[in-house]
């Protein structure tokens, strides 16, 4: 199978991460890891090419890099694994990458346009500077599957947020003449359109979530299952979700053996109830406010309703007003996400109040010693 996609360096400050993958590189290694040969077409410098080739030596499939020469070394830099970033820009004007082939997984790229004429195509436009539809790239395919996140889906459909995701999908199917449309919806799992019907795909429960590259892993495993293994769109998306769960849990791309031994529980979200989270944290320094802002944005992106005292009550000298509004916010919340670093007295009070009410408390802690956490270890409602 052919893959068109970018090869970029990825750096993350916390937790530490410094690898060369990008969408094209990661998808190529992911499918090689499953025992299939891949031809990767990308603008890639000699160092990045050598890195991928060495990485592929540990896979059971063979990787061939069809190198479009460049001296650029583009980097994605993240402060943390859930950070939203601005993609790097290319200083080069590169010719498009175009291939005619039987089957292809094509990603949108930063440094050039991509185009294909194929029998089977899976297209993931990526969140680059613009979201181009498959048809806008000038591409053609007899059998086309689109793998999108919700933001990309609304962008391609040019739909307002009040439109239902189902209407957006049908709009894309008509515009793109797509046989399959998969829309990834974060904690809600995914929706798959095929043969006039929509089906739901669950996500799976993991102890941790490594988000960087998770979308690339999903697209790779969907293409593997749908094109190379001949599975249905629903089966392909289900298997892709399972493989992505393994990647999010381990930060490693799975092999066949890994997936055969991997049996996580499907996680079904109650879409009729929107969970409300109270964000307990100190808010007195720039560093404290920065992490509160990051956590709040990430929780909202996950579809949760967030009550943040800093944002929803504000700063005032009226201490009784702050107390009254914070308690009301706690009472009306389903659970608490608490940032314990610094052992702020207000945060500790909010944790105690919530636990006394029987509410679940999730504690984020990096530097508080275990001896100061004795009262938090034994409660039924505490999770770390």
Automatic annotation (TrEMBL):
Q: Where is the Carbohydrate kinase PfkB domain?
A: 145-245
So which domain of life are we looking at? Bacteria
Q: Which SUPFAM superfamilies match?
A: N-(deoxy)ribosyltransferase-like (SSF52309), Ribokinase-like (SSF53613)
Q: InterPro entries given for it? A: Nucleoside_deoxyribTrfase (IPR007710), PfkB_dom (IPR011611), Ribokinase-like (IPR029056)
Q: Which GO terms describe its molecular function?
A: kinase activity
One short Pfam name that applies is: Nuc_deoxyrib_tr
Keywords for the protein's UniProt record, in alphabetical order: Kinase, Transferase
Name the chain's protein.
Answer: Ribokinase
């Amino acid at each position: 199978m052919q893959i068109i996609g970018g090869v970029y360096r990825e750096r993350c400050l916390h937790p530490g991460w410094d690898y060369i993958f990008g969408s094209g590189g990661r998808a190529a290694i992911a499918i090689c890891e499953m025992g299939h040969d891949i031809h990767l077409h990308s603008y890639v410098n000699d160092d990045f090419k050598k890195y991928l080739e060495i990485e592929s030596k540990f896979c059971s499939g063979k990787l061939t890099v069809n190198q479009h020469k460049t001296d650029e070394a583009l980097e994605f830099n993240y402060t943390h694994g859930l950070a939203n970033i601005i993609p790097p820009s290319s200083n080069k004007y590169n010719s498009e990458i175009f291939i005619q082939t039987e089957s292809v997984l094509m990603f949108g790229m930063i440094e050039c346009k991509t185009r294909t004429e194929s029998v089977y195509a899976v297209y993931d436009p990526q969140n680059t500077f613009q979201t181009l539809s498959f048809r806008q790239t000038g591409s053609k395919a007899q059998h086309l599957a689109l793998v999108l996140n919700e933001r990309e889906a609304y962008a391609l459909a040019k739909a307002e947020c009040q439109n239902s995701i189902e209407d957006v999908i049908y709009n894309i199917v008509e515009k793109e003449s797509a046989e399959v449309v998969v829309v990834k919806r974060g904690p809600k799992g995914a929706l798959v359109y095929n043969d006039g019907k929509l089906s739901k795909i669950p996500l799976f429960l993991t102890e941790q979530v490594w988000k960087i590259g998770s979308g690339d892993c999903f697209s790779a495993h969907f293409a593997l299952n749908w094109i190379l293994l001949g599975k249905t769109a629903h089966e392909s998306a289900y298997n892709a979700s399972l493989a992505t769960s393994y990647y999010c849990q381990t930060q490693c791309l799975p092999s066949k053996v890994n997936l055969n031994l991997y049996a996580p529980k499907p996680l079904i979200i109650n879409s009729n109830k929107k969970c409300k989270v109270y964000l307990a944290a100190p808010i007195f320094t720039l560093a404290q406010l920065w992490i509160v802002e990051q956590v709040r944005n990430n929780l909202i992106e996950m579809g949760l309703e967030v009550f943040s005292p800093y944002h929803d009550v504000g700063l005032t000298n009226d201490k009784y007003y702050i107390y009254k509004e914070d308690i009301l916010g706690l009472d009306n919340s389903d659970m608490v996400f608490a940032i314990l670093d610094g052992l702020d007295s207000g945060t500790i009070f909010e944790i105690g109040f919530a636990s006394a009410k029987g509410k679940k408390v999730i504690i984020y802690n990096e530097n508080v010693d275990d001896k100061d956490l004795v009262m938090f270890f034994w409660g039924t409602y505490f999770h770390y």
